[in-house]
User: Fold ABC transporter permease from termite gut metagenome.
Amino acid sequence: MNRTFSRPERMRMFFKQFVTEIEQLGVNSIGIV
Assistant:
């Protein structure tokens, strides 16, 4: 049970960080343009 729950939780954190970096990149790109 614990092992099954651990993997999606980690993926969610990774995805959240990934989206945040993408947003920062987008903001920087808009700032440059």
Remarks:
- The helical segments are 2-32.
- Residues 1-26 form one domain.
- The chain has one helix and no strands.
